[in-house]
Write the structure tokens for this entry.
Amino acid sequence: MINITVKDPDGHSQLLDVPTDIGLNLMEVLKAYEYDILATCGGMGLCATCHIEVLRGAENLPECNDNELDTLDTLPDADVNSRLACQIRPGENMDGLVIKLKNLQET
């Protein structure tokens, strides 16, 4: 189990306990914690509705693959700290990761 801090677009933070042994990607974890992520493409890295900004711990994440980079390139607000949560599988080395959600559904 690791801890990941999630900041929403309104600036509120929540510390999540994230299992690393059940095979979920970060987008699925966020949805399990009831964050309003559309996940239109089902985690294929094509829609960018799970766009996050990595505020701390980026050095512990795996490199972006070409598909993720191509999708991020379509976003006007993407920068070097942008990632797609569906492309990240939480691992023990990610304890203390801090992310900010970028594209939450309008409710």
